[in-house]
Amino acid sequence: MISPPRNPWFWFACFAGWFGILWLLSSRSGDAGGLPPVPGLDKVVHFGYFFGGGGLFTAFLFRLSPDRPRWLWILLCVILVFSLVGWLDEHHQSHVPGRTGNDPGDWLADLSGALCGALVFRRLHHILR
What we know:
Layout: H1 8-26, H2 41-64, H3 71-93, H4 104-124
């Protein structure tokens, strides 16, 4: 069985890649990326993508001090960082032709997904020990 990397900077690089892909996806002109016209589906997509980002960022923070993780601090950092990332993503989309942005529902889905990703990681963190 292959064990997950223990270097925190590996996880930060994964998070940075996640952010880069987010920026590219948000830069696409037109509708919601070709999603079928199902009400609320965009919120599910936002939640899912940010779930992954929240897990990656939590892995980075956890690996900085795996022997004595400060979970409250980690979760507060996730909330702060992803509040900003979600807002930045929505603001960025508002400047892309054919896109709408500044949607509080999308921002809430982003933040909820990231927090849930962090909480799931918290539950499964023993895998990275």
